[in-house]
């Protein structure tokens, strides 16, 4: 009886841990008071927009057209790009627009973190705006972003990423749903003080806060967290909108999540001394939205083992029925291109990829370079 109780408790704890970032954590955030930004008006700061590219020739015409639109609205906006040794002519396409974009060519494959550091060292704007080569910004994104810096306590501003192509596959659908949840969490974190980290699609910081860091970390997380460590606010602007096409193939998404998770863990190790000095609320946010998720695959595995052991102790027939049912769901999900079973498989794949990435990082494996997904 005692063993059954222990297995039941383990199962419930694992279920709670998996649900924590998506259910319990948001409920806690909603109960916290709002931390208002100071209603300050003043001139908008100068800015430099930075992005890195590797073999993005297919995306460059649309990207360059988007940059031309932004430059027309903001003639003073400096735009800098880093080409990480592209072999498809990406660098040449950017270089052809040298009146609009300052191109820095890398020595070969060096990685995004290295490239962004090169660009940040050359930038001269008061605010550094970071984006990705395959991301498009809405026309008023720069205006709305820079307006938030009127508050001197604001040290960094994130935008909102809207994904395109959610209907193209189950993988894209799950990715879109996950990201909508992520965006809402960031909104609540911003309302209650600080967002705990940015992604690379669209974010910015005051140039004076830009930190130094190794090439093995996630530069977007490292750079954005420097704002929090400096005692400034890292906030999210809903009206600063970036758009990106979703990855539709499972193998592309799996590789991407392994790489990101490994770099995230190296980032965590690099930032650990500063993370420990954060305010208690920020430490709670960081643990809830990042650490608990990184080990979600482990919680699922432990929960499945506990559920199986409990079912076997209660009734071997119940265990057999559960195992066959799970195998059938996975088989249908793997073969399906859409629907709830396919979505469930994609969720499991995402957790497995994240756990694998963290495990690789713990053994010392680093990922400094990247390849664009072919299924965008």
From TrEMBL:
Gene3D superfamilies attached to this UniProt entry: Spore Coat Polysaccharide Biosynthesis Protein SpsA, Chain A (3.90.550.10)
Keyword Membrane: yes
Domain Glycosyltransferase 2-like: 48-210
The organism's place on the tree of life at top rank: Bacteria
Pfam families membership: Glycos_transf_2
InterPro entries recorded: Glyco_trans_2-like, Nucleotide-diphossugar_trans
Keywords: Glycosyltransferase, Membrane, Transferase, Transmembrane, Transmembrane helix
Segments crossing the lipid bilayer: 291-310, 317-334, 340-359
Family statement drawn from the similarity comment of this UniProt entry: Belongs to the glycosyltransferase 2 family.
PANTHER family on file: POLY-BETA-1,6-N-ACETYL-D-GLUCOSAMINE SYNTHASE
Protein name (record): Glycosyltransferase 2-like domain-containing protein
Source taxonomy: Bacteria, Pseudomonadati, Pseudomonadota, Alphaproteobacteria, Sphingomonadales
């Amino acid at each position: 009886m005692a063993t059954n109780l222990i297995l039941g408790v383990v199962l419930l704890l694992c279920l709670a841990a998996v649900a924590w970032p998506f259910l319990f954590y948001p409920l806690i955030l909603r109960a916290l008071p709002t931390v208002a930004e100071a209603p300050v008006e003043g001139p908008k700061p100068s800015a430099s927009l930075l992005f890195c590219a590797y073999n993005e020739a297919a995306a460059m015409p649309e990207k360059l057209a988007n940059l031309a639109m932004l430059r027309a609205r903001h003639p003073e906006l400096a735009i800098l790009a880093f080409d990480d040794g592209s072999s498809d002519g990406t660098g040449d396409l950017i270089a052809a627009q040298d009146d609009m974009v300052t191109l820095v060519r890398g020595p070969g494959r060096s990685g995004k973190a290295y490239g962004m550091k090169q660009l940040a060292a050359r930038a001269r704007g008061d605010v550094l705006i970071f984006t990705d080569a395959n991301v498009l910004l809405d026309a008023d994104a720069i205006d709305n972003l820079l307006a938030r810096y009127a508050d001197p306590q604001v040290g960094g501003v994130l935008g909102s990423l809207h994904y395109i192509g959610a209907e193209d596959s189950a993988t894209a659908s799950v990715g879109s749903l996950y990201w909508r949840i992520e965006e809402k969490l960031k909104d609540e974190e911003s309302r209650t003080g600080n967002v705990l980290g940015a992604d690379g699609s669209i974010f910015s910081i005051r140039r004076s806060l830009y930190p130094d860091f190794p090439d093995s970390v996630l530069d977007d997380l490292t750079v954005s967290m420097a704002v929090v460590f400096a005692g400034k606010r890292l906030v999210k602007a809903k009206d600063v909108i970036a758009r990106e096409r979703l990855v539709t193939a499972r193998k592309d998404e799996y590789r991407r999540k392994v790489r990101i998770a490994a770099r995230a863990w190296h980032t965590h190790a690099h930032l650990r001394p500063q993370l420990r000095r954060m305010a208690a609320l920020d430490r709670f946010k960081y643990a809830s939205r990042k650490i608990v998720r990184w080990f979600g695959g482990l919680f699922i595995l432990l929960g499945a083992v506990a559920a199986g052991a409990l079912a076997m102790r209660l009734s071997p027939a119940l265990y057999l029925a559960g195992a066959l049912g799970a195998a059938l769901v996975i088989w249908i999900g793997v073969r399906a291109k859409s629907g709830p079973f396919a979505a469930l498989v994609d969720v499991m794949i995402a957790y497995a990829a994240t756990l694998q990435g963290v495990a690789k990082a713990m053994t010392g494996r680093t990922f400094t370079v990247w390849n664009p997904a072919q299924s965008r």
